[in-house]
Amino acid sequence: MSSFFSKRLLITLAVVCAAVGANGFIAYTQILGQSEADTWMARSLQMKEDLEAYLHGLYDERALYEAAAKHHKDVPQAQVERSATDLRRIAERMRRTVAGDRAQLAALDNLDDKVTRWRADLELATPGHGTVPDDPELADDRRDVSDALAALRVHEDHALADRLAQSAHRTRAATITLLFATLSGIGLLVYAFAIRDRAARERMRAAQVARQSDARFRQLFDAHPVTMWIYDASTLEILAVNSMAVKQLGYSESEFRAMTLLDFRPDSEKQRLARFLSRHAPNQLDDGRTRAGIWHYLRRDGSIFSADITFYPLTFDGRFSTAVLAEDLTSQLSAEAALTQSNQMLESIIDNIPQRIYWKDLDSRFLGSNSAFARDAGFAYPEQVVGRADAELPWAHDIDRQRKRDLDVLTTGVPQLNYEDEIVVDGQRHAIVANVLPLKDANGQTVGVLGSYTDVTDRKRTDQALRIQSRAVDASVNAILITMHVDGQNVIEYVNPAFRRITGYETHEVIGKDCRFLQRDDNQQEGLVALRSAMRANREVSAVLRNYRKDGALFWNQLYIAPVPDADGTITHHVGVINDVTELIRYQEQLEYQANYDALTHLPNRNLLRDRLSQALSRAQRGSGRVAVVFLDLDGFKNVNDSLGHSFGDKLLTVVAGRLGACVRASDTVARHGGDEFVVVLTDPEDERALNNWAERVRHAIGEPVWIDEHEFYVGCSLGASLFPQDGEDAETLLKKADLAMYRAKDLGRNRFQFYQPEMNESVGTRLNLERRLRRALRDNEFVLQYQPQIDIATGRIVGLEALVRWQDPEAGLVMPSEFIPIAEESGLIEAIGEWVLREACRQNQAWQDAGLPPARVSVNLSARQFHRADIRQIVLSVLEQTRLAPEYLEIELTESVIMTNAEEAAEMLNQLHDIGIHLTIDDFGTGYSSLSYLKRFPVDRLKIDRSFVSDIGVSHDDETIITAIITLAHALNLQVIAEGVETTSQLDFLVAHGCNEIQGYLYSQPVDHGLIPELLSSDGIFEAATV
What we know:
alpha+beta, 8-stranded mixed beta barrel, disordered C terminus, transmembrane, EAL domain-containing protein
């Protein structure tokens, strides 16, 4: 059988292809017949469902009268009216279903009359709160209604059988026509369809005979040819079955008797059965039969038995029971399913052809189409297209051109192929490529046209998009190149005009070259390693490279490369985008220099000092060498600075730096530690006597008179030294001990040199006492916050408040953070203090917002220990949740040195914090070391210019250059800039002129207690934006 169906499928496919190509009309005739049969089958099923719903509605209506009578209430007229409305709606739907069938319409009229009379009698028999008597007239009415419904069912069955026979006749006629229209080899197809048609008609005839047998022998039970069983109406237990039930379902009689009605029901129908029984309880069944429709049962072997079920109430063995007649429809349903499947297969093949297909008659009216065409025409089904003309379709405005093309094909018989046109679909114009051919019958006579078209709108849009993209690439300010991988090289296939502008090479000079020629001999760059690795892995990559123009000039570029796969997913090309970042790299180099060198003296700063000291210690440890760390502080420098101004002080520091540099070897390091403090790292000193001699030379050199602007100055210096390895083995320890020694030298009268001695640690006791008091301060809540406003330069309004911690010490009064934060960091108390600051600042900010004040962000500084905690994200989330502060009103400030300690870890931590929704700011920017490649990866929102640069505006051109570079860099990275320590209008004017976004400083407000903030937030603006 499977071989037969396979052959039939192949033959069917061949016929469909032939029908589309040349014999569409013959295929259409067959499809039309089968479609008509399906339509009548759907009508019959709809009619039966409506009859069943109508009957149930009548029962429900009668139940309303009975319930009212039972409870001595008025009949609920509203529900009766709704029930009557539902029945009228069902009756109207049945009339539409059988429109044109006079017999069925007459039967429906008869049913309406019976129902009307039954309702009238029911109302007469149920007056007021009376009961519904067992009136003979009501019984007659119910029988009349049941008979009318039964007559409708019988007539519908006959009508269906007639239509199925007609469909079979049309199918046979089409098959015969197809026999004469095709080659002799198609005879096999005719034979296959004839066999299928005969088998279908035989199965339908068998089903019809079964139904007729049901009418003739339904009074019999055990010998009845129809499956029957009897069950207890209350318990649903099977009381008896006939031999046909045993045969059909496969259970023995004893097995049946041990079962209930639910035991041989599929799970999918058990709820349906429960609903049916609840509507048709034993005491609600009429004296006549009850048609339940088609139900499904489980055979003993697990297969499905389908039957048309009829119920009869009866008394069996003294028990109120129900007899079930199960008219076997399994074969009939299988035949109908096969017929439907065949039709669906033919339609599916045509519907799945990608082109839209249609066929018209000689008058250009549509005879049929596939689903794709129907959808374009605005219909859900192809049947809705039949009989319509182009004037009724969305493209009616083009009817003249359509009609002329049809007439040309009908007149000349010459197909019009692959012509371009436009149609309207869903109100939009679509581009198509169409074909129109003459449609001929089996005799070769032209009976219409066969048309098809393909929607090429998306293809045209794609072509347009490609042209636009090509233009965009040509117009890009970035250089773009496309390479193809050939024999281990990435050969250039395309470059845009920007490539020629940036590199100086003409297109013909680079096409066919490996793109690596831009690096020349500079092919061991760090970025190239990552780039090659990514290209081998076929993934996107971005790297900063040094390239060389045609004239040999070096330029830095940010190169982004993306692989391009073909249709099979194989990487065949790469697209490269070159962004000239030479200026940014120069800014970065300048910032890197500033991060490692003091801008005033050009000596190494603290960052570079620690690095060089660590390197010197590592070399000494490997070679058993010695290292001396000397702390130097100028004596009397403050007097010069205070009396003559910062400019004189800066010049003096420059002179001292030069004299110190002249006193050391190339292997030594002189660094400015801050203010008037310098640190010297001496490698491999001979002994302490030699160090004393060197210190004398330094004191003598610095003690020489200094002439600045015709002013003569004299300054001295105090020096303290610590030695490796006896005083310590790490940089921090040696620096601290050298610092202690230097302060000891000052205590002894200044202008002295002291080596570190262990007794100097006695000062540590003071620090321990301070640590103890700090712990008490945490316990007794002695810390307070002051807030310094941050001003938007453009609007003059407060947009943020920096929270600054103070210590209200009962012994010393208000203590500034510079006095206790270092101890807190050393002791680890900084984490607890920092968390208190974070929580209090968020709480206070939310309190201001709850009071109706304009919202502003609050900035909180995080220490290195806090930032590097693994749970810092959870701490921030917890504080925000507990204080109810929205994340956008919290800003975290971190110094460059904190972030760059471990840039990779910092990037991950910053991303975690940024994902919360808070703002991130790099504090004291320009004083540390920030790599541009890392900076652009950090999800920060703004950079804060350190006050040391701001204070030198108008004094130091170098500091002004640094500020300008920071602002330019920030804006290039889409970051905001805030400057701290703004104290003069000249500083403000400079910042405004160079595009700074926000400022903070004593020019507008010193840090104030929280009680003064509401007045500031409520004001229209701290200063007028117009002045800016």
